[in-house]
Amino acid sequence: MIFGMITLMSFNLIDTFFISLLGTEPLAAVSFTFPVTFTVISLAIGLGIGTSAVIAKALGANNMDEAKFDGFVALLVSAVMVAVLSVIGFVLIEPIFTLLGASPQTMPCMSLNGAKY
Q1: How far is it between the farthest Cα atoms of the chain?
Q2: Which residues of 66-98 are buried (b: 16+ CB within 10 A; e: fewer)?
Q3: Is 51 within 8 Å of 74 (Cβ atoms)?
Q4: Transmembrane ranges (predicted)?
Q5: Could you give the residue ranges of the DSSP H alpha helices within the chain?
Q6: Using CA atoms, how far apart are residues 92 and 98, in angstroms rounded to an integer?
Q7: pTM above 0.85?
């Protein structure tokens, strides 16, 4: 778990270095997207930990059918979660970043048109 967190942090640190070479606006855009990205990653980690606990409990009780069903439900919940978060993100991306304090100059770097950055 600690290794995973260190990997995520080093990944962001390296990204920040290379994006800083593009200028201040792309770097500001990355700093605004971090809380949103962190929230999505936290939800995924929470779902994974919860799924592991439920499946481990079923396997500990020698109930293979329940473990398979729990795994299926976890995949279904994650698919629904991805769909809902994608729609929310697509529809509300500008209001979310405006509430976070993003300026109009950084908004193009955070939109789908800013994917080139």
Answers
A1: 58
A2: ebeebeeebeeeeeeeeeeeeeeeeeebeebbe
A3: yes
A4: 12-34, 72-93
A5: 2-20, 24-60, 64-99, 107-110
A6: 10
A7: no
Q: Which amino acid, one-letter code, is at 62?
A: N
Question: Are 29 and 62 a contacting pair, CB within 8 Å?
Answer: no
Give residue limits of the domains in the chain: 2-116
Residue with tokens 């729609």: 87
Q: Which two tokens stand for residue 100?
A: 């976070």
- Contact by Cβ (8 Å): 105, 25: yes
CA–CA gap between residue 92 and residue 87 (Å, rounded): 8
Task: State the Rg of the chain over Cα.
Answer: 18
Q: What pLDDT is recorded for position 112?
A: 54
**DSSP secondary structure of 13-44:** HHHHHHHHTT-HHHHHHHHHHHHHHHHHHHHH
pLDDT in tens, the chain (117 residues): 678 778 777 877 888 889 889 888 888 888 888 888 888 888 988 999 999 999 999 999 999 999 999 999 999 999 999 999 888 888 888 888 888 888 888 887 776 544 443
